[in-house]
Amino acid sequence: MSAQRMTRGFLLVSPRARGLLQAATLFLLALPLAGCGTGALWDKFLNKDDTFVEEPADKIYNEGLYLMNEKKDMKAANKKFEEVDRQHPYSDWARKSLLMSAYASYQGGDYDSCIGAATRYITLHPGSPDAAYAQYLIAASHYDQIPDINRDQGRTEKAIASLEEVVRKYPNSEYATSAKAKIEGARDQLAGKEMAVGRYYMQKRDYTAAINRYKAVVTQYQTTRHVEEALYRLTEAYMSIGIVGEAQTAAAVLGHNFPDSRWYKDAYNLVKSGGLEPSENQGSWISQTFKKIGL
Question: 159: helix, coil or strand?
Fold first, then answer.
């Protein structure tokens, strides 16, 4: 082979590649030394420090409790609870750790992780006495994410469905009472949304659209605090479009059920301003609705 060809062939190897070849050569030359007093060093090179040391489940679990309760470090606590499940997946400590992981996530505001852990707990341990609490954590996570009334209320509806699941599955549990209270709060939120949209339509003088919103409050959310204003707004809307009979009925029903309400005073004055008196038409949908709920 000519010197020119040898030079050309050598140039095809980059400086980096030459360095790697030299390192490989030195590595091979060092192999025979492995038996000459360097065995321990060689073993350490091969094994590094990736040895696994199993710890008692209760020790890891209690470390998680400490991080959660004393240090208020929910993420670090979660790692400990997850480690229990990883090292001792079939132990009773793993079951407890899964529930505590859901609780720590909830306390840390990581609602998606809470829902995931609690759902897994219910799936794996449906007959556990703590399944009711896991179900409640799911519902509470949805409830705590309810947005203000100016935004879409899809999360509110999801919260109500989850809370009703607690009441349905565990009616005698201590969590059912709390779930019922939260349901009322969520329903009040939905009623508030309907009222906000109704007022918007009133400002636009779209009285029919406004009436439909107020009607939803009266028929679906009668037990919320918004029903009094809804009856007044119905009085106002019906008076505006000349359906005075329904206006009189709305005012009368408001007076019968909430006589001390400031909304009744406004409804009464509004009807009187038209030369009328509040008078209930028993055949009106407003009257029929309130008879059904016993108010």
Answer: helix
CA atoms within 13 A on the CB side of 114: 23
φ and ψ at residue 149, rounded to 5 degrees: -70, -10
- How many Å apart are CA 214 and CA 232, to the nearest integer? 9
d(C-alpha 70, C-alpha 49), whole Å: 31
Terminal C-alpha separation, the chain: 109
| Distance separating alpha carbons of residues 257 and 82, to the nearest angstrom | 55
The string over 112-149, giving b where at least 16 C-beta atoms fall within 10 Å of a residue's C-beta and e elsewhere, is: ebbbbbbebbbeeeeeeebbbbbbbbbbbbbbeebeeb
Q: Provide the CB-side half-sphere exposure for 49 (13 A, CA).
A: 0
Identify the sign of the CA torsion 154, 160, 166, 169.
negative
**Farthest-apart Cα atoms in the chain, separation:** 120
Residuewise pLDDT in 10s, the chain (295 residues): 443 433 333 334 444 445 544 544 444 444 444 444 445 544 544 554 555 568 999 999 999 999 999 999 999 999 999 999 999 999 999 999 999 999 999 999 999 999 999 999 999 999 999 999 999 999 999 999 999 998 999 999 999 999 999 999 999 999 999 999 999 999 999 999 999 999 999 999 999 999 999 999 999 999 999 999 999 999 999 999 999 999 999 999 999 999 999 999 999 999 999 999 999 999 999 999 998 765 4
The model's pTM: 0.76
Report, in angstroms and rounded to the nearest whole number, the Rg of the chain calculated over CA atoms.
35
Alpha carbons 138 and 130: distance in angstroms, whole number: 13
The CB-side HSE value for 145 (13 A sphere, CA atoms) comes to 21
